[in-house]
Specification:
Length: 193
């Protein structure tokens, strides 16, 4: 398996686990057991939520890995980041987000992921955890990257909340997702080091 596919596969698995973790925390509605067929509708809703979250979670990661691959092939970083910014702006606009702040926050995340993925793509290893272990000599070094990425994700969430004049439901959802991500990343760090 190619390293880029291995990296994106692990990131997608994280997104799936986060979504399932958030869904499991929500109680099943009584209607699902009373009305025949409601469990099917609930299942389809949950599957839709899973696909949607994975798509949103993976966009900056796919963008960063694409730029990292191009950099390793000798392309110019400034041109690649300008294209990534334009792609990000277009993607965010398709979701109804138009502010410069939200684009800036998403690009901060892309740049952090880019640096991380460059290290992983240049390290040796047959599986994801070994790539991380070889790219980051110590747990503290990797923890710093995880913390920076988490802060960038939170900045993006805050920008999204601001632009949407968010309600409490969205804030609670984003908080639950952030909690699931943090828990799973800490578990991964414990497994690696």
């Amino acid at each position: 398996m190619e390293r880029d596919d291995m990296i994106l596969g692990e990131e997608e698995q994280l997104a799936r686990e986060v979504t399932l973790g958030v869904i499991v925390e929500r109680p099943v509605k009584i209607w699902n057991s009373i009305i025949p067929g409601m469990f099917i509708i609930d299942f389809l809703r949950r599957q839709s939520a899973l696909r949607k979250y994975v798509r949103y979670f993976m966009f900056p990661r796919k963008t960063a890995i694409r730029v990292a691959q191009a950099l390793l092939q000798g392309e110019e970083k400034a041109i690649l980041l300008a294209q990534a910014k334009e792609d990000t702006r277009t993607w965010l606009a398709s979701l109804g987000f138009h502010s410069n702040e939200i684009c800036r926050a998403q690009m901060e995340e892309v740049v952090l992921l880019l640096e991380h993925y460059l290290k992983l793509l240049q390290s040796e290893g047959d599986y994801y955890h070994l790539l991380i272990r070889n790219a980051y000599a110590s747990q503290e070094a990797f923890q710093k990257v995880v913390d920076q990425t988490s802060e960038a994700e939170k900045a993006f969430d805050r920008a999204m909340i601001t632009e949407r004049n968010s309600n409490q439901k969205l804030q609670d959802k984003l908080k639950a997702e952030a909690g699931q991500i943090a828990m799973r990343r800490q578990k991964m760090i414990a497994q690696i080091y």
